[in-house]
């Protein structure tokens, strides 16, 4: 369990502050994470890694000479936001382009991809390789769907070594992709992990039992078995990984491999050494030559008791890069030449908080927007525990917390915008940006898309017609599907959002006012969200544990339906109290 925290909501930020204070020789703080505090050669490719906090030494602990140039660090088990990734990448950029790498999780993919698009639009070359080493999370013919666990280290290290050697962005990407293709991992756990302030772990394992094939975000395993002996566990790990040797590797003809026995947070090193003793014997018996074995903590899951084995199958080029020296807060190999420190004075934040012009009608609509955003935050507060409980069935249990962070950030931003005299579009755009930034994760990114799409149809002049609001919701629905690649039936918020958008448009096209059409659409969304209980998930973290979620609705769909219903009642209340019935947005 986690014992030490102040306010759980501040834990990640305070953790990063302390990490930087303890490691100023290596890192400096920038908005969204950390970058090297030492200078890098001009023109060198910048390797930027990242993900949610709670996995130390991944990701900040791997920043330093010979490894990453920067790490975007999200909240606990939540991907960094698009804004955080952009901030870290710009601070790390040396003029040679930015190479991104991170574990293959939906929220990380959404936010890093969006950041990459934004950076490319600004003229910064970017490439990405997602880590897909976890053998239990998808079949070999769908390796691209696998999640990244402790194999992060091999991909990050090869990419960084190539960058240090002067390789260009294309070559760094090629070598990182090769490293990923030659990396396989498999893990087990004996207990779940407990986030700061939480009363219960994200999942539990019965006494004397072991979860097999777990995720690193508190996702339960795909199987459960009695805890074996240390030798029995070693045999399970090695047998599973040798059953899937990468293409191009001949495991019976003296193949060379780096084994990484990774502790997930609270398994003792001494226990892992007992397990590794047998792993080494098994690999030798199989005719495999071990190179530079690693036993320790490289990618944890907060306080989880468990371990994973990674096998990194070398070729000549990968082995030469693997031997390159590294010097970071949590990972050191060889001898790195001392580097000059960069100027520690942080660059002044750009941009302005000033709002653009808006007429009186739009400022009135901004008041309605603010009321709706306040309702969203209150609704999330009222259901945060239940949303977390639903998410913990086959996910990581943080949906309610993430929605709470995002909605309250949106409320603060919307309030500030209205106080500054902003119109409806600016108010909702700022709320959307704050939501996606502070929530992080998949839901943060998708709610940012939804709200931004609606905002674009509101404008900062005049009062929008009901049809414009419906068009914004429809655009948000399509944007979420384009952005997140989910479709109806995948057991995501799309299952509630698509029928909500369609019903809203149909009602308004048929002559209904916004309030009546919205309420009818919310009812349809609620039914659709409840119906997701019978679906098998085909997207996101729950996909690996699909059968576990049958009988439980998707938390994203449920939260959307709850919000749609509550906002409908807010609009109805405003319409009743508003003397000006001509305003279409409350009619």
Question: What is shown here, in short?
Answer:
The protein has 587 residues and is α/β, with parallel strands linked by helices.
What can you see in these coordinates?
The protein has helices at 11-22, 82-92, 106-121, 152-164, 169-181, 230-242, 269-285, 316-322, 360-394, 399-419, 424-439, 441-458, 466-484, 494-509, 514-531, 546-549, 555-577, and strands at residues 27-30, 33-36, 46-53, 70-76, 98-103, 126-131, 183-189, 209-212, 223-226, 256-263, 289-290, 294-296, 306-313, 326-327, 332-333. With 587 residues, the chain is of the alpha/beta class. The protein has 2 domains: 8-327, 3-Layer(aba) Sandwich (Rossmann fold), CATH 3.40.50.10440; 360-586, Serine Threonine Protein Phosphatase 5, Tetratricopeptide repeat, CATH 1.25.40. Strands 7, 8, 9, 10, 11, 12 and 13 form a 7-stranded mixed beta sheet that branches. Strands 1-2-4-3-5-6 form a 6-stranded mixed beta sheet, with helices on both faces. A two-stranded antiparallel ribbon has the order 14-15. Helix 10 packs antiparallel against helix 11. The longest helix has 35 residues, at 360-394. It is globular, with a radius of gyration of 25 Å. Residues 346-351 and 580-584 have low confidence and may be disordered.
